[in-house]
Amino acid sequence: MEKLWTRLWSGCERTRRYSDGMTVVHTAVYVAEQPVETGLDPVAACRRARDGGGFAWIALVDADDELVGRTASDLGLHPIASRESLRSHQRSLFERYGDDVFVVLQPARYDDAAETVRCDEIDVLVSPGLIMTVTRSDRIDLADVRERVEAHPELARHGTTAVLWVLFERVISGYRAVLDGVENDIDEIEDQLFGDDPGVPRRIFDLQREVIDLAHATTPLPDVLTRLGAASEADEDAAGVWEDARGRAQYVADRVQSMRHTLDNALTIHATLVNQRLDEKMADLTVVQVRQNEQVKKISSWAAIGFAPTFVASLYGMNFRYMPELDQPWGYPMALGLMVLLSAGLYGIFRRNDWL
């Protein structure tokens, strides 16, 4: 093992790159509240920190599972915690394995153009005198976390809790920018609801999915921070810090849940508006159909009235030889009277039935 780390760690720089040039392994040793500049490998750094009564921070960035598992094993971390760090998680998490603690954080960023929430993952394994962070994305920059710890020695005196607290603070602060972006898009959706934009329901569905992903990352945070505070009861300052962080995490979780309700209501309102428009169109169509029926009635009525004289005239147009009224002087007036009588009778019937 010493030969392996000798190949991976050469010189005195604190950051090392190896293999394909992507993986970064960073070690920092803090003794007496001050960072100690060393080029030690993780095992030696951990030994040095514990011998000096300080702590070591081992950061694996974009590391493969083999390196993560090997490093955790060499550092003597709990095997279950080591296995947990090898799989991806969809929620923030806190687990205790003996003296070791395993924490999962889900930092998020919002792509406003695509309206998508992109969550990354930070796995944190904490052991007495040691904290190891595992990130598999180069989008997560731990430099500001390291600078914050090193710029405030009063933080470093809390040991591994200092690094863990700054990580939580950075992640929770990052959620606010994400929430602002999502809320802005929700406001736009509310403005679109009363328009005829056919893309509104799809936009609501897509944003709902992103908010649900964000809820997976934020909803467990208050409980995680409560458990961390309970684990730090011996340190009153640390317990107070965790309680403050828990309050801010609860605020974030409440905002996310409020967004979910808003989007659910928006979808309900949109469905109601669509149904209302359909009802209005059906009502208009019904009015048109009623008007058409009235016109058909009138046309049919006048057609029947006009057919009565035509029927009588057609009978007399058959040229039968033996028709008794043909030779009578009252035959022609009788035929005309019959036409008028039939037409007047039909007109009265249709008028009484409101067809005319």
TrEMBL record:
InterPro entries: CorA_cytoplasmic_dom, CorA_TM1_TM2, MgTranspt_CorA/ZnTranspt_ZntB. Keywords: Cell membrane, Ion transport, Magnesium, Membrane, Transmembrane, Transmembrane helix, Transport. It is a multi-pass membrane protein. GO terms for molecular function: cobalt ion binding; cobalt ion transmembrane transporter activity; magnesium ion binding; magnesium ion transmembrane transporter activity. The chain crosses the membrane at residues 299-318, 330-350. It catalyses: Mg(2+)(in) = Mg(2+)(out). It comes from the Bacteria. One of its GO terms (cellular component) is plasma membrane. Belongs to the CorA metal ion transporter (MIT) (TC 1.A.35) family. Mediates influx of magnesium ions. Alternates between open and closed states. Activated by low cytoplasmic Mg(2+) levels. Inactive when cytoplasmic Mg(2+) levels are high. This is Magnesium transport protein CorA.
